[in-house]
Specification:
The protein is built from eight helices and eight strands; from the N terminus they run αααβαβαββαβαβαββ. It has 314 residues and is an alpha+beta fold. Helix 7 links the parallel strand 5 and strand 6.
Length: 314
């Protein structure tokens, strides 16, 4: 199974870039034609004849202007050229204004969105940078936080044959809804690990905003999609990494936390707690959840402290 992050958003990004490029071309052509038109008008005013092919090219807008009702009167100066030049000058400035307004949007768009192959037990991801090495050099001293989500659908109507397929479709809709409004500027990687959605952000200082977004979104989605026949629960865990080379090992540990089935709680590792509490003015507190053996082999001791992320009470 392969997963592409928000195909509609990918198409919208392409449309915005195409519109931006078109506006820049319109701006350039309008300014050039306006300048040429003013020069041509000045030469005609001075009774300097132009070659036929130049006159044929430049007289077309003159004809349009006159068709719109402007008729030169008497032996005075014909201002058709000035009208044409001014018209294209206005178009150029208008295109420039819109393009300048779009520059910030264009600059914030991811450069590439390559699709990776998906294999069972491995990461299915979309990397939002074509310069991952450069990003690692810049961000290597900063912590990246990792979010892993398991959507659990409990269908009361067990006898319905299509219940499993319907559950998978519903899980995909929920994941799509979460991804739709992610802050792409701060996103490092996003995809699936063992069919569970993971998200990596390269700016740890964004964590409070992200937790709030996820809490509100999950609450809203649970209310929207739940029915008397369908119950929706979530397993959520957070951790941190220093660079993306640590991601798969960290996801393995986080997947073990999901297997504890601590439903509808935001659970974090001790590494996340340390990084989070080193920040100033945090909006949440991390309460000790307990010590759990995260080893797949129960005979091997891999006890780790886990913490519950809760809103700070004033």
């Amino acid at each position: 199974m392969s997963y592409v992050v928000n195909e509609n958003k990918r198409n919208n990004s392409g449309s915005v870039l195409a519109l931006y490029g078109t506006l820049r071309i319109v701006q350039l052509c309008s300014f050039i034609y306006s300048f040429v038109s003013f020069c041509y008008w000045a030469l005609l005013t001075l009774d300097i004849n132009m070659p036929v092919f130049i006159r044929f090219f430049l007289e077309v807008p003159y004809i349009v202007v006159r068709m719109c009702g402007y008729i030169p009167r008497g032996a005075g100066t014909d201002f058709t050229g000035a009208i044409v030049g001014s018209f294209f000058l206005v178009i150029g400035f208008f295109a420039n204004y819109i393009a300048d307004s779009m520059e910030q949007v264009v600059a914030s768009m991811p450069q590439t969105q390559p699709r990776s192959n998906v294999r069972n037990g491995s990461i299915s991801s979309v990397n939002y940078s074509s310069h991952s090495d450069a990003i690692e050099t810049i961000d290597i001293t900063k912590k990246k936080f990792v979010f892993l989500l398991e959507v659990k659908i409990s269908d009361v109507q067990i006898a319905v044959r299509s219940s499993h397929a319907d559950s998978e479709k519903l899980k995909k809709r929920i994941c799509d809804a979460i991804i739709d409004n992610l802050n792409m500027n701060k996103l490092a990687q996003c995809g699936f690990y063992k069919k569970n959605l993971f998200i990596v952000y390269k700016d740890f200082e964004y964590i409070d905003n992200f937790i709030y977004y996820i809490k509100v979104t999950l609450d809203s989605l649970a209310k929207e999609f739940a029915t008397p026949q369908v119950m929706i629960d979530f397993n959520v865990t957070f951790s941190v990494i220093s660079n993306l080379s640590q991601l798969e090992n960290e996801l393995t540990t986080m997947d073990m936390i999901l297997n504890l089935n601590l439903l509808n709680e935001f659970v974090s590792t001790s590494k996340f707690k340390t990084a989070y509490e080193n920040q100033d003015r945090t909006k949440y507190v991390l309460v000790t959840k307990g010590t759990y053996n995260l080893s797949r082999n129960l005979s091997i001791n891999n006890n780790q402290d886990l913490f519950s992320i809760r809103e700070r009470r004033l």
